[in-house]
């Protein structure tokens, strides 16, 4: 069954515009278009400085539930126990077996097609890979507690996550240590600092719990999003309650409501600071033409030692449906896909509390302001090592100008390159963007000319590219991945496998596209560079295993199971 979903958008607080889009009742939908100002947080908040857990191996840690504590347990080999703490529990595990830990997300079980309404929005992370030279850390959500199909939201019951260190040795890749980290509902991201400490973000799932009255406007509530810091031995050294930290820094700052709604999340670390980016709902808008909570994105930077907020807001993107985040050596770079204000793939860089909200629109999708369907899917972003252009962004979009259907013709893989000096350039226009072709569309009521470089052309085969990803493999080369689909609609769709190609720093194809496997890519997770390979980690829920999928510069695919 299809319903008509309409949102009301305020234009300069004077005019109103109704934008409607079709949606399937079975798919999630955001509230009306984003609004609400985020305030910059202060610089001091001690956080909770707490930990918890029990462990074997090198260290042990006393178990501690919320509001309670217990004595630490002795560790194997006589190593001292971790301090007894309260809060979310961290456990250093004796086992390195995925099957002994829990049930990973089933990557091939997510058969959402390009015609599915839910693909308009980002997805919470499931399997997060964080490369470290030839090694990789993997944070994954446990789905052992998921209810049967048709019951309550499974993420309500997912209370555990696992973090594994995977190292490459003479015999290949192997898990060398593992931790269990209790969650609030779902993982939100993973980061690691120069000392080997880990940062794990987790948030609640409260989509079905919100009412017009609760939370009240401006209400900061504890326990909505937390960041746990743990050392390599599994001792938790800090727990940041993001909502409490934001309130302490600035009582007028924007509260965190319904994290990752109609969006995703990313966590990054650099030089003593950790940044968290995710979707949220805003305070309830009682305007009779709205009567809903808007959706937007929210960024918070924290001091990695004290937990205090160093930045409480960044750039404005309402209806921010997908996000990416990394540090480029100068600041934390954000990339969003927004459908309203602005309706664009938009990029910004932020390194301090007074950086403003300047953003740069890289590509403007066709369609009306607030129309959830952007006919575009955000892929990956990576840095270029040399030349005037410093960044490359991959995505999929339609070639044509029609907007009558969810898919109008074919959707192809494309990229843009962004000037290394983009943050010092005029953000109006697109002089900071490079592409080998142009595309003229009507976006948000205006005729615009996009620059882009097309990487595929599916017009003859009437195929669709979906789930685009990009990862560096060294020497300013990048593997671009996507799924290929054919059909005429959601129920008639046929999955055509995983495809890939290699591009160079100039955006041209170096290794032509080919079919790699019949595996799916996880919609909520990034493909990363691991040494000279691109890596995506897939999960098999039934077999309770994870698989490292390594793609070389010649597009050869090697899969290594972590049972």
Structural notes for this entry:
The protein is an all-beta fold. It has a domain at about 375-525. Helix content is about 0%, strand content about 45%. It is built from two helices and 35 strands. The chain has helices spanning about 100, 240-250, and strands spanning about 1-10, 15-25, 60, 80, 90, 125-130, 135-140, 160-170, 170-180, 185-190, 200-205, 225-230, 235-240, 265-270, 275-285, 290-305, 310, 320-325, 330-340, 345-350, 360-365, 375-385, 390-400, 410-420, 435, 435-445, 445-455, 465-475, 475-485, 495-505, 510-515, 530, 535-540, 545-550, 555-560. Strands 22, 23, 24, 25, 26 and 27 form a six-stranded antiparallel sheet that branches. Strand 15 (about 275-285) and strand 16 (about 290-305) form a beta hairpin.
Question: Which features does this protein show?
Answer:
six-stranded antiparallel β-sheet, 563 residues, globular
Shape: globular
Which structural class best describes the helix and strand composition?
mainly beta
- Which spans of ≥5 residues are poorly predicted at pLDDT below 50? 1-79
Main β-sheet, in a few words? 6 strands, antiparallel
What's the β-strand tally? 35
Oligomer: single chain
The number of helical elements comes to 2
Strand content: over 45%
What's the average pLDDT? Answer: 86
Helix content: under 10%
Ends: how far apart?
Answer: 41 Å
Over the alpha carbons, how many angstroms does the gyration radius reach?
22 Å
């Amino acid at each position: 069954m299809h319903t008509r979903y309409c949102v009301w958008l305020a234009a300069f607080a004077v005019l109103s515009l109704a934008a409607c889009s079709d949606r399937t009742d079975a798919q999630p939908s955001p509230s009306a278009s984003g609004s609400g100002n985020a305030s910059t947080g202060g610089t001091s908040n001690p956080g909770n400085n707490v930990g918890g857990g029990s462990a074997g191996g090198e260290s042990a840690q006393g178990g501690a539930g919320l509001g309670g504590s217990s004595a630490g347990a002795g560790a194997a080999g006589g190593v001292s126990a971790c301090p007894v703490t309260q809060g979310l529990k961290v456990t250093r595990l004796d086992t390195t077996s995925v099957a002994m830990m829990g049930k990973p997300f089933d990557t091939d079980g997510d058969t959402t097609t390009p015609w599915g309404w839910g693909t308009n929005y980002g997805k919470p992370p499931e399997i997060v890979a964080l490369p470290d030279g030839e090694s990789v850390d993997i944070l994954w959500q446990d789905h052992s507690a998921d209810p049967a199909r048709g019951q309550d939201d499974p993420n309500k019951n997912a209370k555990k996550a696992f973090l594994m260190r995977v190292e490459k040795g003479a015999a290949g890749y192997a898990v060398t240590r593992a931790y269990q980290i209790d969650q609030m509902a779902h993982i939100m991201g993973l980061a690691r600092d120069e000392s080997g400490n880990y940062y794990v973000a987790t948030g609640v799932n409260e989509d079905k719990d919100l009412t017009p009255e609760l939370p009240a406007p401006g209400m900061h509530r504890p326990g909505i999003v937390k960041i746990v810091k743990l050392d390599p031995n599994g001792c938790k050294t800090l727990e940041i309650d993001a909502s409490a930290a934001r309130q302490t820094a600035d009582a007028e700052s924007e509260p965190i409501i319904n994290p990752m709604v109609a969006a995703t999340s990313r966590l990054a670390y650099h030089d003593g600071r950790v940044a968290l980016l995710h979707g949220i709902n805003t305070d309830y808008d009682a305007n009779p033409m709205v009567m809903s909570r808007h959706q937007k994105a929210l960024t918070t930077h924290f001091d990695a030692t004290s937990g205090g907020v160093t930045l409480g807001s960044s750039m404005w993107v309402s209806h921010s449906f997908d996000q990416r985040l990394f540090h480029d050596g100068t600041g934390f770079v954000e990339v969003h896909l927004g459908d309203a204000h602005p309706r664009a793939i938009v990029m910004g860089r932020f390194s301090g509390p007074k950086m403003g909200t300047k953003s740069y629109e890289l590509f403007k999708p066709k369609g009306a302001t607030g129309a959830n369907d952007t006919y575009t899917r955000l892929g990956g972003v990576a840095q270029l090592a040399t030349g005037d252009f410093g960044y490359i962004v991959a995505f999929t979009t339609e070639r044509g100008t029609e907007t009558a259907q969810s898919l109008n013709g074919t959707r192809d893989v494309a990229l843009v390159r962004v000037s290394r000096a983009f943050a010092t350039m005029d953000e109006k226009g697109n002089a900071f963007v490079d592409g080998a072709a142009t595309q003229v569309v009507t976006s948000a009521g205006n005729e615009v000319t996009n620059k882009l470089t097309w990487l595929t052309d599916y017009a003859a085969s009437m195929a669709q590219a979906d789930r685009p990803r990009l990862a560096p493999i060294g020497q300013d080369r990048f593997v671009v991945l996507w799924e290929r689909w054919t059909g005429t609609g959601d129920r008639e769709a046929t999955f055509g496998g995983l495809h890939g190609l290699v591009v160079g720093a100039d955006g041209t194809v170096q290794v032509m596209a080919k079919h790699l496997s019949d595996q799916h890519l996880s919609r909520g997770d990034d493909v990363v560079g691991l040494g000279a390979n691109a890596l995506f980690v897939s999960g098999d829920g039934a077999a309770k295993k994870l698989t490292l999928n390594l793609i070389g510069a010649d597009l050869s695919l090697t899969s290594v199971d972590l049972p």
